[in-house]
Structures are given as structure tokens and as C-alpha cells.
Amino acid sequence: xxxxxxxxxxxxxxxxxxxxxxxxxxxxxxxxxxxxxxxxxxxxxxxxxxxxxxxxxxxxxxxxxxxxxxxxxxxxxxxxxxxxxxxxxxxxxxxxxxxxxxxxxxxxxxxxxxxxxxxxxxxxxxxxxxxxxxxxxxxxxxxxxxxxxxxxxxxxxxxxxxxxxxxxxxxxxxxxxxxxxxxxxxxxxxxxxxxxxxxxxxxxxxxxxxxxxxxxxxxxxxxxxxxxxxxxxxxxxxxxxxxxxxxxxxxxxxxxxxxxxxxxxxxxxxxxxxxxxxxxxxxxxxxxxxxxxxxxxxxxxxxx
Length: 304
Ligand SMILES: C[S@@+](CC[C@H](N)C(=O)[O-])C[C@H]1O[C@@H](n2cnc3c(N)ncnc32)[C@H](O)[C@@H]1O
Hints:
The chain has helices at 3-6, 12-18, 36-44, 80-86, 103-107, 133-139, 142-151, 158-171, 178-185, 194-209, 212-226, 240-252, 283-288; strands at residues 26-29, 50-54, 70-73, 92-98, 227-237, 271-273, 296-302. By secondary structure, the protein is of the alpha/beta class. α2 crosses α3 (36-44) and α11 (212-226) packs parallel to α12 (240-252). The longest helix is centred in the middle third of the chain and has 16 residues, at 194-209. It binds S-adenosylmethionine (SAM).
């Protein structure tokens, strides 16, 4: 497998433009994956520049660029600050995040992310992590399953989906594979939207298994703290919950999006959102790369 088949980068030039790269600057790609964005960043850095690339999936290490300016960190990006401190770095010029999973994850049936091929209920990006999709599907109470399907999957019939799983567990036994899970849920999905809805159920499980919302909040907090004034935070998200959280941090520097004002009403936020709207991929890119269809790009700048 080469980096092209591993993952096709989304909104590549637009997101790297958003970093406003200084040739001697220090940047972090917190989701290296197939390294498409990392290579483009290296292409704009001078010999003094430095790039750190994070990925929690050990499979990604094969894509790490062989370049003296690059350092790969196999870790969850929630530990961004700790790892950079370990390397003696306190401040950075830019952080780029391209959230979620890569095409590689869907292509490997054994990882359990794909709707097309049968596989174990796994869905861990980091295969050393404890929680698997099987633990969630077979171990969570109905209320917790319904919350996950409703909040992370935006499924209107989240309660019915959860009830079907719990019923299957008590009558037949645990759900073993991704295809079995689809068989249990399929009667509850709208026939015309079955694939889309199933993808949302899988997405919801994946977000829970990988603790994606908490990891994102931790990473954004660390990025806001570490950016130099004028430094850039560039995030590509694929889910409305993620995009809302990203927007809040970029507008205010905090998760709630609360913008503080001084006595005179002047905004005192440590971050500034560079555009009021999220950028989407062009129709050509969406045609070429279906994965780009749900992408939302936002760029924030550290003010002080
Ligand atoms: C959408 S892909 C990134 C693709 C990349 N921009 C490229 O050009 O190939 C997301 C990658 O980030 C990794 N990832 C997702 N969440 C992570 C996290 N919390 N910590 C570290 N890596 C993460 C995934 O394993 C995956 O390889």
C-alpha cells in the first residue's frame, strides 16, 4: 500500500494555505494518516522549519516522511502538549487537524469500520486501546446506546435502534460482527436511506469507541495554549458536533464559545475565527473524492 491508496487528502491546498506557513516555523499535523497534508507542509518549509506529525494508529508510521525536519509521534493528539514539551517545544506556529478516520481504516475489513465487508466489531484507531465496538454494542445499557446513536449519529429513531440491539442480546445472544449488527438494525432503517443511516450508526459507535469528542476538546485546548500570537489553527471536520466545537474554540479560545469582553465592550478572546462560514470542497473535488463531501474547513488565528 502506498500513501495514495492509504488516503487521498481533502482540501489540501486550501488547508495548508490556512496555516500561512513561515519557512522557518514549527508546525504540527496532529492527524498524519497518509501524510498528504504533512508532505504539502514540508514542501513549503525551509531548511530551518520543523514539522511534528501525530497519529494514534500504528499503521500510519509506514507513511511518515523520511525528512530530517519531520518527527513522527505515535500518540493520541490529546497529549499534544505533553509530547511537544518532551521534545522541548513550548510554542508552535500552526496546528493542522484533519479529523476522523482515513480511507485505510475503511479498506481494512479486519478493523471493523466498513459497511461493505464483514469484520469484527472493533473500530479502534489505536489497537492498544481498551474499548472496542463489541464492548459498546454488547455491554452498554439501552439508554447509553440511544444517547450515542442520537447525539453522535443524529438518528431520530435512536431509542428503537438501541432497543433492537438489547432485544437481540437477550433473545439470541451477543452481536458478533459488523454484518450481524447491520442485520439487527436493517429492519429499522428507511429503505431509501439505508446505507446513509447505517453509516451514521457506525460513525456514532466509532466516535464513542475512540472518545473522539473528548480528544478533540483536549487537543484544541492544548493548541490554543501553544500557538504563538498570529499562529494558525486549521481544522477539517466531518460531523456537525465537531464543527461546532471547533468554531467555538476558534471564536473564543474555549469549548463553550463564550467571548469575554472588557469594561468597554472590547472582545478579549485569545482566538479569532478568520471566516464566518466553513469552507467546503469544490464540486470537482467532491466528484473526484466522495470523502470530501462532508468536509468543513475552518481557520482560526491566535490573537494574544
Ligand atoms: C482523515 S485521516 C488524516 C489524513 C491525512 N490528512 C492525509 O493527508 O492522509 C485522520 C487520521 O488521524 C488519525 N487520528 C484520528 N483521531 C486521532 C487522535 N485523537 N489522535 C491521533 N491520531 C488520530 C487517524 O488514525 C487517521 O490516520
